[in-house]
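Researcher: Next sequence.
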Amino acid sequence: MSDATEANGTAEAAGAGGLADGGADGRHVRVVLVDDHRMFRTGVQAEIGRTTETGVEVVGEAADVDQAVTVITATRPEVVLLDVHLPGGGGVEVLRRCAALTADPERPVRFLALSVSDAAEDVIGVIRGGARGYVTKTITGTDLVDSIFRVQEGDAVFSPRLAGFVLDAFASTDAPPVDEDLDRLTQREREVLRLIARGYAYKEIAKQLFISVKTVESHVSAVLRKLQLSNRHELTRWATARRLV
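Model: Next structure:
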């Protein structure tokens, strides 16, 4: 079964099935998982999706931006666990396209970023985009469940290592410094940049982003030209220095 079929099927089942019973303490929250790694989604589902114990009901899954918007719109969960790096534009694009749901005063859909990345750009990007919190994938299942319920209630939640950074970034009345070099790149070029810097081959990047190898090559050429770099080794050093990897 493809990720797209699985995501759509999950959304339809949730729409037909209604609410499940709450957890041991009576709490209940409906959640959508958005991550492009199917095994990771399966692991999170197994860890937190035991509704009678945790109170968390996973009502849908998605592997890319388009799937995410479709499933979130169809199921209207209370909380979305959102990966930052997704095919189709990333977590920021999901937030942009779901802005009306986030702003709904009656039934707001709240987003909690769940990512392996602790890069400043990623954290600030999704928080500016409307996410209520950001936790890394090192979080325990128990803490993740607690974070989900806190976000459902309207709290802002961050992994301890990120909390101070986020406060510093937003406490100042001055805007965070703008990286003019990075601003020259499109969202897709930034995605390719990160994957190149992580050591992915062109074929692997093409598969990850659902684009052709030729398109990957074009994006890499554009990135090197815009950043005035000569090769992928210089590109990797550039990205590492900015904590984009």
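Model: DSSP finds 14 helices and six strands in the chain. The two ends are 31 Å apart (CA to CA).
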